[in-house]
Amino acid sequence: MGVNTLITIQRVLSGYGLALLVGIGLGLLIGRSRPTRLALRPLVAYLFPTPKVAIYPAMLIILGFGTASKVALSFSEALFPILLATTAAASQVDPRLLWSARALGTTERSTFFKVVLPAALPGILTGARIGLIGALVGTFLGEMIAGSDGLGHQMVVGWRLLRTADMYVAIVVISIIGFTLDRAFLALRARLLVWSDEAGH
């Protein structure tokens, strides 16, 4: 149980970390750059509603049955909430804030870090919270479908062999992990948004 729990947590955090890097980076580009938005919006609109588990067999063919395919599914489930929330937040920064910064002689680079990013941060963190649970769901699904370890695999084995205790323990543990990660995220969010009215939400 302990080993499976650690394996699942590692996969969740790996997929989530990658989704944060790609989702926030691309989201800021799409939200603030019109050419990038025009180029990538059709692709995002096409991929977003596609059930990610539907392409999991392709991930298995390309990445194999090990950890890489589980992390890939975790990443794909977490990516779009982060990407879409970041895009929306970055594109809706109050123009008056940008005008004020430029009027004071702030460079474009400094404006991005001192105005755009702080203004978009509440929206980014909302998407990141949803993405965290997506990463958890993706990892668990991957382990259930084609796993040889992890909590998802343990649950399926318990179900197949009628070991109901093992099955329910896996469900309880994954629920505890999800709850703990969400509480930890909210604590971090409150620290990052201590200056904002949204810090307590």
What is the N-to-C order of secondary-structure elements (H for helix, E for strand)? HHHHHHHH
CATH architecture: Orthogonal Bundle
Contiguous helical run count:
8
Shape: elongated
Count of domains: 1
Q: Quick check: average pLDDT?
A: 91
Beta content: under 5%
Q: For the report, how would you describe the main beta sheet?
A: none
How far apart the termini lie comes to 34 Å
Helix share of residues? over 70%
Q: What is the CATH superfamily classification?
A: MetI-like
CATH topology: MetI-like fold
Low-pLDDT stretches are none
Structural class: mainly alpha
Q: Would you give an account of this structure?
A:
The structure is a single chain. The chain is mostly helical and 201 residues long. It has one domain: MetI-like (MetI-like fold). Helices cover 83% and strands 0% of the residues. It contains 8 helices and no strands. The chain has helices spanning 2-32, 34-47, 56-63, 67-91, 95-103, 108-146, 150-160, 164-192. The model has no long low-confidence stretch (mean pLDDT 91).
